[in-house]
Amino acid sequence: MSGYVRHLAERAREAAVQIALLDGTARARLIERMADALLQRQFEVLAANEQDMERGRADGLGGAVLDRLRLDESRVAAMASALKEVAAQPDALGQVTRREVRPNGVVIERQRIPLGLIAMIYEARPNVTADAAALCLKAGNVVLLRGGSEARASNAAIAACLHQALREEGLPEAAVSLVSDPAREHVLELLQLSDLIDLAIPRGGESLIRFVAEHARVPVIKHYKGVCHLYVDAAADIDRALALLVDGKTSRPGVCNALETLLVHRDIAPSFLPRALAALAQRGVEVRGCERTRLLSAYAGVDVQPVEESDYAAEYLDLILAVRVVDSLDDALLHIARYGSDHTEVIATEDAAAADAFVRGTRSSAVMVNASSRFNDGGELGLGAEIGISTTRLHAYGPMGAESLTIERFVVRGEGQVRHAESRG
Amino acid sequence: MSGYVRHLAERAREAAVQIALLDGTARARLIERMADALLQRQFEVLAANEQDMERGRADGLGGAVLDRLRLDESRVAAMASALKEVAAQPDALGQVTRREVRPNGVVIERQRIPLGLIAMIYEARPNVTADAAALCLKAGNVVLLRGGSEARASNAAIAACLHQALREEGLPEAAVSLVSDPAREHVLELLQLSDLIDLAIPRGGESLIRFVAEHARVPVIKHYKGVCHLYVDAAADIDRALALLVDGKTSRPGVCNALETLLVHRDIAPSFLPRALAALAQRGVEVRGCERTRLLSAYAGVDVQPVEESDYAAEYLDLILAVRVVDSLDDALLHIARYGSDHTEVIATEDAAAADAFVRGTRSSAVMVNASSRFNDGGELGLGAEIGISTTRLHAYGPMGAESLTIERFVVRGEGQVRHAESRG
């Protein structure tokens, strides 16, 4: 261990005291200034991004990664407007969430306070640098950011804008600390700092998440993969189910709330599947199907590859879909329990009892009844901007907004009350 | 790894499906039956406890440990009545905590679901076996219990009563699984089971907590030590402050919400400290004081040992108190930030501004204004029974009741809504 990350974390922890004492207005103003600085200095940010893109092309990065890495004027504008939205959100801090007067007269309040120092470990997309910093600060936290090496110039340029805003407000730059050397040994060092870091949020692919899970001594909330299912029940409305399928699979296949597996009740399969397979083929989706799916596809003249068991656990993030015909709702639930990732599950049904059984029978972060999997998103669920979608069933489950970056504690006010009467002189 | 704990955890995980589907009435009835079984079979439990006590005496366990280990008829009755109270609490599950209709017509609800499989790792006190099982089941979870070796016969006898109740309700005994071989290698195995265990709660001393923190691959909420402070402000009412001191230090010195350090503003020290030191001496409390404390104690004719820096970080759990005179409220906050354990802090003051500054300036799980530290307890704070007091600033902070053993997830109900209009056929 070089001590490099410990040094950064210690400085961030010192800055935390000042940030925690800011009121809601000052925190909002700081985040607005950050948005302004990004817009003022956008050409610096774009020039830095061009360096990353050149190096990425030279290193042979794939098209999807390059697309996530790329910034242009409209993407910088979107980043700035996301910050303005965060600034404008209601303040989660200092709220009294519950209040009770006890029989002995003490008044008990529950109050939200910041978590403290949050470490964000992420990949490719440079906008996470601005989003994560803004959400952490909104909730009174400080943040240690470790982005991917492919975006290092972009992240440094964005951080420079955020630092300018901190300076303008007379606040320490260390409130947003960037681990500028992206070597993985620094992530390892970071994950050991249990005396300094209150929460680490890894957001990325399997290799990153495994590395963090393996080495973390600090509390971790994972933002892991979405193996999301659509179950088309015997009592589904076929047109609705088709729309949910097409939206879930094709509207943005590269994101975690996209569908990866379609489960179809055997009774509706003959009427639903041929139309579904045709709609998917028309949109360029490769289908990998079970035996019964393939029989129906042959009948409908559509090409379907045989599915392997590994397909059921796959997060394709691409125009590929696994399809399985099941005998019952219970079998659909068993499939989800076995292969799912606790992210998002959808049922298409007009039968209220089936919908309730599906909701009760899954423990994913979001269950949708006749609504698209793509709604599992902070903005769509009314939380505003999100730092990501938690797949850890602790503290926060599903999209995490600023409120999820706080914790409730107890404030008790009395007039000298004690537990044992003899304690009085 | 023997695979012994993995096998237990897999069986518990299977039982979780059945437990999660019980309604609130069935869960309450199960816990009441557990209380009944404990009362019916109390002589078995007491006989087993006598074995543990004999072995403990032979092994030379200290008086405090033996006292925590010891059961008698009234302690078994208290255990049973604690279970009845848990059974009678409002049901935390299935509650819709928030509901919103979005502009597109989808209805978004947040709903509490169980965490799943909770592993409880604890020491000495056998009542934790019954309490933890009841609280986990109340919230729809299953539990893996690993108590201390010194209580193994008592824990097995209590678990037998809990299993009888599960059988009577037609439920699998594996819902409450006891790691009956207390070897520490089994704790190590347990802490690696990240595919099976949703949360581990260690509750015990420094050695246990360090071992868990070092080896855990599963999410952990620590129930760690309480280095609790009373700060007597310049504007304190001296009689009130004395009552808070005596209650906090002497009403039950062996528990985590007892006071360990007294901080006194220099302006009030000459009038407060001599009386405080006399009251402590009268109750057999050994005081370790700073230079200024010792000057005042000599003046008052009371014996005070010099304090060492290590005293400020100590959780004595005994009739010992560290005392320091500070120059200001800010210095008191700096002392707490440096030596505290985020558990409970108390201010005695009649100055509302000082009280607010103290509340804002600490990040402990409970802050008390003119109220005893001993109120940081689930029962006193209105939560009912508690599984312990979390010192981890994530998910739950402070006393954890049944509600803290659940997580909110999203349920979205629509009529076929999609994110991209083109998804409609």
Percent range for helical residues of chain A?
40-55%
* Computed Rg of chain A: 24 Å
Strand order of the largest sheet of chain A: 10-9-11-8-7-12-13
Low-confidence stretches of chain A: none
Strand count, sense and barrel status of the largest sheet of chain A are: 7 strands, parallel
What structural category characterises the helix and strand content of chain A? alpha/beta
Number of strands of chain A: 16
The share of residues in extended strands of chain A comes to: 15-25%
Please identify the oligomeric state.
homodimer
Tally of helical segments of chain A? 15
Overall average pLDDT of chain A:
94
CA-to-CA gap between the ends of chain A? 55 Å
Largest interface, Cβ cutoff 8 Å: A-B, 78 and 77 residues
**What does the overall shape of chain A look like?**
globular
Q: What's this model, at a glance?
A:
The structure is a homodimer of 425-residue chains. The first copy, chain A, has 425 residues and is an alpha/beta fold.
Brief descriptors of the model:
15 helices, seven-stranded parallel beta sheet, homodimer, four-stranded parallel beta sheet, alpha/beta, 425 residues, globular, 43% helix
